[in-house]
Structures are given as structure tokens and as C-alpha cells.
Amino acid sequence: MRLGKTETALDLLKRYTDLATSDIYPLRLMGDQYFNLVDGWLEDTLTIGNDLPRNDAIICSSISKTVENSKEFLLLAEDTCFQNMVQRLKTIEKDMNKLH
User: Fold this and answer.
1) Interior/surface letters 64-77, b for 16+ CB within 10 angstroms, e for the rest
2) What CA–CA distance (Å, rounded) separates 99 from 16?
3) 44 inside domain
């Protein structure tokens, strides 16, 4: 948005929203192909194991509020696509709050 690339910003926000509202919950700390030894270390070393220090409901709330209240996106407030993304994020936030 700072660069004046509204369409690019909307595309990236859509990708972010798609990820944040996908089947990624419950979130866990874990390795990948490169960090393939981290899983055991997390379980053995951290008191919380592979759990996150915040629960999924709080994370979803942070995601939703960050997008909705960001000064960077004020110019998008009237954009239908942006409003739909905010609504999707609020919906997942509400769903997570029901679970916790």
C-alpha cells in the first residue's frame, strides 16, 4: 500500500486470509525438511513442548484485528474484497472463541 500498489496488496492480503482461514489449526511448533531435528528438541526441552505460548483463539483474534485496524489498509476500507477478507477473518476468530 505504501508503494501505491493496491492490487498487489489485495492479492497478498487474500493469500494471507486464505492461509489464516484454512485448516491449519491447532497450530504447533514444528520443524520442516531443513530443520528436521527440531521436533524432538522442542518436546524434550521446552516446558510447553510444541504448543504455542498463545492459544489459537488469541492468535486468530490478533490476525483479524491487525488486518481490520491497520492504518496501512485504511484506503481499502470501502473495497468489497477487503471487507470480505475482514469478514472471513472475523468468522474464524468467532469460531475459535467458541472452541476455547
Assistant:
1) beebbeeeebeebe
2) 22
3) no
Residue 82, class by beta-carbon neighbours within 10 Å (0-12 exposed, 13-18 middle, 19+ buried)?
A: buried
The model's pTM: 0.82
Q: Would residue 19 count as lying in a domain?
A: yes
Distance CA 53, CA 75 (A): 34
For residue 82, the enclosing domain spans 6-27+53-99
Within-domain flag for 46: no
What average pLDDT does this structure show over 68-78?
Answer: 95
C-alpha cell at 44: 524434550
